[in-house]
Structures are given as structure tokens and as C-alpha cells.
Amino acid sequence: MISSTTRPILERLAYICYLMLMAVSIGITWLGGMVGIQTGDYTAMGIALGGLALSRWLHVHGFAHWHFRECQELLDAPAAMSRPEAEEIAVTEIATLFARLEAEEDVWVRGAVRREIALKLAAAPGLRDDFEEALAVHPEI
After folding, report:
1. How far apart are CA 24 and CA 52, in angstroms?
2. What's the pLDDT tens digit per position in 19-74?
3. What is the Cα–Cα distance from 131 to 121, expressed in whole angstroms?
4. Is 92 in contact with 37 (CB distance < 8 Å)?
């Protein structure tokens, strides 16, 4: 039996193999067709069509049993947001944290919020200028 930590690794590896087999088979089918027209030998194209049939089986089986949909969603998701979007999100998060800091009465929670603000500002030091007034009120950050 496959352990619970090994299974996701093998599923992702199967997904990568599926993508590679499909891409190579499509390319060789096209190239084999071009070579077949010139030489009359369609062996490469036949093998590539077999690869496409195998990739189709992997597609059906993988999406049904091997979590290929989750792997595809990871590839479809943007790897990183564009810089302006990330800064806009950081500005709103930091503004929310400052509002939470002002509203919070518990000293321990206020300390945790201060640390969180400091971490976010350390990650994006350019945003310190946007929060000059709030930082003047809280110089410990």
C-alpha cells in the first residue's frame, strides 16, 4: 500500500508525465505526418497516435482517480500577482491591521497585531511612506 505522503507526489508525477506524453505525442504526430507525406513512412505518426491514445487514457483515469484536477488548478493559478495588485492588497491589509490595533483593548493582542504590522512593513518597506501618520502614533513599529 502507498503511504499518504507518497501518494500526492506520485499523482503529481503522473500528471507531469501525462502532460509531457501528450505534448510530445502531438508534436511527433504533426512531424510524423509531415515526414510521412514526404517519405511514405508513417511509423512515427502511428507510434505518436498510440501515445495520444495512452495520454487520453491517463486523462480519463487521472481526472477520475488521481486528483489531476487539483494539479491543473495549481498550474492555472497565477504564480505571482503583479506588483501593483500585491501592493494594493498589502496596503489594505496593513490599513485593516492599524484599525484593529486602534480598536483592540487587550495588550497581548495589540502586541501580536504590532508584530504582524512590522512583518508586513518589513516585507514591503516602500509602504512605510503610505502609513507615516499611523507610524508616528505608534513609533514602536
Report:
1. 9
2. 999 999 999 999 999 999 999 999 999 999 999 999 999 999 999 998 899 888 87
3. 10
4. no
In angstroms, rounded to a whole number, what is the distance separating the alpha carbons of residues 106 and 72? Answer: 44
> Which residue has better confidence, 133 or 37?
37
Residue 25: closest CA among 4, 40, 45: 45
pLDDT at 83: 53
CA 105, 108, 109, 111 torsion: positive or negative? positive
Give the three cell numbers for residue 116.
Answer: 504582524
Would you say the pTM of this structure is higher than 0.70?
A: no
CA distance linking residue 39 with residue 2, whole number of Å = 48
Contacts of 22 (CB under 8 A, 6+ apart): 51, 52, 55, 59
Check residue 82 and report its DSSP letter.
-
Contact 113, 101 (CB under 8 A): yes
